[in-house]
Specification:
The complex is a heterotrimer of chains A (about 280), B (about 240) and C (about 600).
Chain A lengths: L1 H27 L6 H17 L7 H21 L6 H23 L13 E4 L2 E4 H23 L1 H11 L1 H6 L4 H23 L9 H16 L3 H21 L2 H18 L8
Helix pairs in contact in A: 1-5, 1-8, 1-9, 1-10, 2-3, 2-4, 2-8, 2-9, 3-8, 5-6, 6-8, 9-10, 9-11, 10-11
Chain B lengths: L1 H6 L7 E10 L2 E11 L4 E5 L6 H9 L4 E8 L2 E2 L5 H6 L2 E4 L11 H6 L8 H11 L16 H13 L5 E5 L7 H16 L3 E6 L2 H7 L2 E6 L2 E7 L5 H9 L2
Parallel strand pairs in B: 3-8, 3-9, 6-7, 7-8
Antiparallel strand pairs in B: 1-2, 1-4, 4-5, 9-10
Chain C lengths: L21 H20 L2 H26 L7 H19 L3 H26 L6 H21 L10 E2 L8 H24 L1 H11 L1 H5 L5 H27 L1 E2 L6 H14 L5 H17 L4 H18 L3 H12 L11 E5 L13 E10 L2 E11 L4 E5 L6 H9 L6 E6 L2 E2 L5 H6 L2 E4 L11 H13 L9 E5 H10 L14 H14 L4 E5 L7 H18 L2 E5 L3 H7 L2 E6 L2 E6 L1 H5 L2 H7 L6
Parallel strand pairs in C: 3-10, 6-12, 6-13, 9-11, 11-12
Antiparallel strand pairs in C: 1-2, 4-5, 4-7, 7-8, 13-14
Helix pairs in contact in C: 1-6, 2-6, 2-9, 2-10, 2-11, 3-4, 3-5, 3-9, 4-5, 4-9, 6-7, 6-9, 7-16, 10-11, 16-18, 17-18, 17-19
Classes of the chains: A mainly alpha (about 280), B alpha/beta (about 240), C alpha/beta (about 600).
Chain lengths: ~280, ~240, ~600
């Protein structure tokens, strides 16, 4: 039972962390290395919120707005000039990640920051005492997933984004401003990443390099999902389960690299990953 | 032409190309092409594959960079305008290659061609006026339509926003004769309403039956042109196209 | 940059003793001497730091070869370095400072990363793998290695690393000189390699992987071997590092270190070797001096500089220096053109009566859409068969099925009696098939001579140390060059050629493969009338004169009529007509198809 809850909540957290990266990967076709930096920025929004004495949950909208604004600047000044050099764009986002990380360090110092718990205590569920926050995170992941799905499937922006993913040339010839779609999607992706940063604060220590440790797992999940959020959800469940099972029964250290290694093998065998299902 | 007479002033051509050259990378595809489409006129652009017809349309749309020359629509120069601006100026485009989002519903394909969802109901009404069969099939995936039905959807989509100038790329390709007749009917009705058209075709009889004038593109240059109704037009065009 | 080079009026310079090896050796010798003396004038801190910097610079050379030359953006060199360093530390901990201990440590520090490199290469490179995928794998490797170090317990020292093992009995200055020697040697070998003919193959891989495969080179094998070889070099650097510093830690293998290497190479100037070497030494040395006082600001500046350089100056600081250098009025030596010589073609096996190409009941579908159906076709030596038909008839798809056996199709395609199903393009080239693409597919940053030499690589090999003074080509390829004037344009990079010259060059490259069958997809698209006539003459000479079979996709029916020995008409995925030029030209069916009447 505990194991099932662990798997579900781990998958939920992975989903929260990767969804912003997925949006950017789908539309802009680049892996955003600054993703870790957005996570960090989000977490520090939680720190700021606490310092200002606000309700800890107020960090969520704050992080989304800050992340989206920074994302907009990054897209305009860094990603757009490198549109025709995708590998260089990836490198530039890594450089951006370093810059953001160092700015955070300059502003807040290198030390681990304390943040108020968003949701303390445990809940008895199905006969086990379980971390209340992890259950809340599960709910939040479902809510984010649902919102994301609604945006993609039901809104005009989502439709334009899908059109750009499927055939950018046709989208452009129909009069869709594809540059704007890229900008808005990048902003949303960065905003979602910052949001994820806030949601990570109860689970991990907050320091300027916290984002990096989540980066590779998110990369691999997104590569396997290949721009489909349903495939991402499936990948989070499968690889999250693998991580929990290997950590529990084999070794926590092997568990921590399970996602990266398994995803690499899946991609080697089936380059389209989970998206074909 | 009727409209020009009504206004009593010389009308600007609906579309005018002045010594236009364009291409990809080091390759020049369109070379020094001059061509005009009058108000309410249909001009058929004929030629075999690889002769630069589609590239010419894409150059007008701003999707292929203009190397030289000038393009105007109703007197306004197009240099630097995005396709989005051109659509707002009254340009409709029915592409040939990968013209639909196959995995999206017909409705979503149509939504993508209007700037805002508020304009969709009126646009759809217009579409159903031409192609009523689409009314009950909006939820269907575009890829499930037959080849001829897809061509109707592509044409209908280009007409939704009441364009004043239509660029049409091989709309009759792979379409059975009865459906070709329907496409022709729709285009003739639009012309009667004053819409100007540049129609790229390989189907000679269809093109000449529809158009007022024709031009033949060969290796990126216009090698022949004339009135479409001239008695020798068909023979001359086929000489350019066939072996 | 798009200007066309005039074909006439240039004569290949007389042969000259190549300095390909001599010049770098002299420079390397001088550098080694200077570095040998350096410890005498530097303070201990500088000697210590520079020793480390030079070891890192060895890694930068490997990153530059992979990324700057072969186009493989890698973050994985840190992992191989870490494996080498840990192998050294672990073996020396166990065996102590014995000769056997050092020998074993050195051997393992090189062999273990090389093996790992083979595995990583196999994972990263396969038919149709993407550069992005290879980069992502190279990120995973250091993370896995670091976690394994954590998991190693006492044997790896877990998170605190290993310290206190016996090291080579050298003074600080001794380590400095050893590192300098290794750096100079590695850079020298790399320098000679990239200036050699074999080094051109690396650039060719970066420029145009598909063309490499269609020249019969195996891009996958080259990439995997390169990865393994440079992993071994990184392991050697790890051995040095473990000895010189006396301590190894997980971050030596980490992905952050891997990204730092890429940053150094980018700032120094990818693809220049010396740029990354000097850049790495300068940045690491500066970092050691400055980061003590302003650690975060230093990283911030470095990150900002990195972003700006990537966007505005992709060639790095070396590019900037190079531009200044070119402004100076110093005579620069262009690479001399090799001498063209005729290579006698291997005698063709006596006509066995087997058709060169035999297609039986070929069909191909994309999902529900049938593109080709029931295609039967036989082509024999000396035939020039034109494939015509309207758009969407399936012509290009058919060409693809003939040259890439991994395309999913049904039915049988045999080249000279060998079925090609499942074979990758480079193996089909080995059966004697040359393919010319619709858009000229050459190597944009290589010279015309280098492009041709690569085309001969499967036959003649490539020298890894120098540049051959002669370029042996089959007479047919020489004819193509002569007829198109390219024989006077051997040295400029192909990106300066006109479109028509590129088409001619690609044709010459394909002919240089000595194929039995040439597939040409619209070889005259976008060419002038004169260029088309030349290509037509060349094709006729190849088929009727030399017995090569050719399949030609072409829209220009005048052209087709002039040169074909047979015409095959495709319409809506089916082969509707196969006959002589007269029969097809006079056919009512063809007229109907081309006037748009034949539908359904």
């Amino acid at each position: 039972m505990l194991l099932t809850l662990d798997i579900l909540t781990t998958a939920a957290i992975l989903f929260i962390v990767s969804i912003g990266l997925l949006a950017i990967f789908g539309v802009l076709k680049i892996i955003n290395f600054a993703h870790g930096a957005w996570l960090t920025v989000g977490a520090y929004c939680a720190v700021v919120t606490a310092k200002l004495g606000l309700n800890p949950w107020a960090a969520l909208p704050l992080a989304f707005v800050v992340g989206a604004a920074l994302g907009g600047l990054a897209e305009h000044f860094i990603i757009r000039p490198l549109y025709r050099r995708p590998l260089d764009a990836i490198l530039a986002t890594w450089g951006l990640g370093i810059v953001v990380g160092q700015l955070v360090t300059l502003a807040f110092g290198r030390d681990v920051q304390m943040t108020p718990n968003l949701f303390a205590g445990t809940i008895a569920i199905l006969g086990v005492e379980y971390s209340a926050y992890r259950l809340v995170a599960l709910g939040i992941a479902l809510a984010i997933g649902l919102l994301f799905a609604l945006t993609i499937e039901r809104t005009r922006l989502g439709l334009s984004a899908r059109a750009v993913i499927m055939n950018e040339t046709l989208a452009r010839s129909l009069g869709i401003d594809t540059g704007r779609v890229r900008l808005v999607v990048f902003m949303i992706g960065a905003g979602l990443a910052a949001l994820a940063g806030v949601l990570l604060t109860p689970l991990t220590s907050v320091d300027p390099n916290m984002g990096v440790s989540w980066l590779i797992g998110a990369f691999m999940l997104v590569m396997v999902a290949d721009a489909s959020y349903l495939a991402l959800a499936a990948a989070c469940l499968v690889f999250g389960a693998a991580q929990v099972l290997i950590s529990t029964f084999v070794s926590p250290i092997l568990g921590s690299i399970a996602i990266a290694v398994l995803a690499a093998l899946v991609l080697r065998i089936s380059p389209k990953g989970f998206s074909r299902a | 032409m009727a409209e020009a007479a009504r206004h009593g002033a010389p009308m600007e051509a609906a579309l005018a190309l002045e010594r236009v050259s364009s291409g990809y990378g080091a390759v020049s595809i369109v070379k020094d092409v001059s061509l005009s489409v009058g108000q309410g006129e249909i001009v058929a652009l004929l030629g075999k594959n690889g002769m630069g017809k589609t590239t010419l349309l894409k150059t007008i749309l701003g999707m292929v960079a203009l190397r030289g020359g000038a393009i105007t629509i109703g007197g306004q120069a197009l240099a630097g305008l995005t396709p989005a601006r051109l659509v707002a100026l009254g340009l409709g485009y029915a592409p040939q290659e990968q013209p639909l989002f196959q995995d999206l519903s017909i409705r979503d394909n149509l939504r993508l061609a209007v700037p805002s969802d508020r304009m969709l109901p009126a646009a759809l009404e217009r579409l159903f006026g031409h192609f009523p069969f689409l009314k009950d099939r909006l939820a269907q995936r575009a890829g499930t339509l037959s080849g001829g039905e897809q061509k109707m959807l592509i044409l209908g989509r280009a007409l939704m926003l009441r364009p004043r100038l239509l660029l049409i790329d091989e709309i009759s390709e792979g379409v059975q004769p009865s459906m070709v007749a329907r496409l022709r009917g729709v285009l003739q009705a639009e012309r009667a309403a004053g819409v100007s058209m540049l129609v790229v075709e390989q189907h000679v009889a269809f093109a000449l039956g529809l158009a007022d004038r024709y031009a033949v593109l060969k290796l990126g240059e216009i090698v022949d042109s004339g009135p479409a109704r001239a008695p020798d037009a068909q023979a001359r065009v086929i000489d350019h196209l066939a072996v | 940059m798009l200007e066309t080079l005039p074909a006439a009026g240039r004569i290949a310079p007389p042969p000259r003793r190549r300095l390909a090896v001599a010049a770098p050796c002299v420079v390397a010798g001088l550098a080694a001497m200077a570095l040998w003396i350096a410890p005498a004038v530097l303070d201990t801190f500088a000697v210590n730091v520079l020793t480390r910097s030079m070891i890192y610079a060895v890694l930068a050379v490997t990153v530059d070869l992979l990324w700057g030359f072969a186009g493989i953006l890698t973050f994985g060199q840190a992992a191989f370095f870490g494996v080498g360093a840990y192998a050294t530390a672990m073996i020396l901990t166990a065996l102590g400072a014995t000769p056997a201990g050092f020998a074993a440590a050195l051997a393992t520090a090189i062999a273990a990363p090389a093996l790992l490199g083979l595995v990583v290469g196999w994972l990263s490179f396969y038919h149709r793998s993407t550069p992005l995928y290879a980069s992502v794998i190279s990120l995973v490797v250091p993370i896995v290695v670091v976690q394994l170090i954590y998991a190693g317990g006492e044997s790896t020292g877990s998170s605190s690393g290993l310290v206190g093992f016996d090291v080579l009995p050298l003074e600080i200055a001794g380590y400095f000189r050893l590192a300098a020697l290794v750096l100079v040697l590695v850079t020298l070998v790399a320098w000679i390699l990239v200036r050699s003919d074999a080094g051109r193959a690396l650039v060719a891989l970066r420029d145009n992987e598909a063309r490499c495969a269609y020249l019969g080179l195996n891009p996958r094998r080259l990439q995997i071997l390169l990865t393994a070889a440079l992993a071994a070099v990184a392991g050697l650097a790890g051995f040095l590092f473990a000895n010189a510093s006396g301590v190894v830690a997980p971050e030596n293998a980490g992905f952050l270190f891997g990204t730092e290497l890429v940053i150094w190479v980018a700032l120094g100037g990818r693809g220049t070797l010396l740029g990354p070497v000097l850049g790495t030494i300068a940045i690491d040395y500066l970092a050691a001096n400055l980061s003590g006082d302003l650690p975060f600001l230093w990283q911030l500046l470095l990150g900002t500089a990195f972003v700006i350089i990537i966007i505005l100056l992709p060639g790095g600081l070396a590019d900037l220096v190079g531009r200044l250098w070119r402004v100076l009025p110093i005579g620069r030596r262009t690479r001399a053109a090799p001498h063209l010589v005729a290579r006698v073609a291997a005698p063709e096996a006596a006509g066995t009566g087997v058709p060169i190409l035999k297609v039986e009941n070929l069909a191909k579908a994309y999902g529900a859409l049938t593109v080709l159906e029931g295609i039967d076709l036989e082509i024999r030596a000396g035939e020039l068969v034109s494939l015509v038909g309207p758009n969407g008839a399936g012509k290009t798809t058919l060409m693809r099925c003939l040259s890439d056996g991994t395309e999913p199709f049904t039915g049988a395609v045999a080249i000279g009696g060998t079925a090609i199903t499942g074979l990758t393009p480079n193996r089909i080239v080995g059966l004697g098939v040359g393919r010319k693409f619709q858009v000229a597919s050459v190597f944009e940053s290589l010279s015309v001579a280098d492009c041709l030499r690569l085309a001969r690589a499967p036959h003649d090999g490539l020298s890894p140390v120098g540049q051959a003074e002669t370029l042996g080509l089959p007479q047919a390829a020489l004819d193509v060059l002569r007829m198109t004037g390219l024989d006077h344009l051997l040295t400029p990079p192909t990106r300066l050629l006109s479109h028509g010259q590129k088409q001619a060059l690609e044709l010459a490259m394909v002919v240089a493969l000595e194929p039995r069958l040439i597939l040409l997809d619209e070889p005259t698209a976008g060419l002038t009338k004169a260029e088309r006539t030349t290509i037509g003459t060349v094709l006729k000479a190849l088929t009727t004169g030399r017995g090569i079979a050719a399949v030609l996709v072409e829209h220009d029916l005048d052209f087709v009529r002039e040169i074909s020995s047979r015409i095959v008409v495709l319409h809506q995925g089916r082969l509707v007509l196969d006959g002589t030029v007269e029969a097809v030209v006079g056919s009512e069916l063809v007229r109907t198809i081309y006037s748009g009447g034949a539908h359904g």
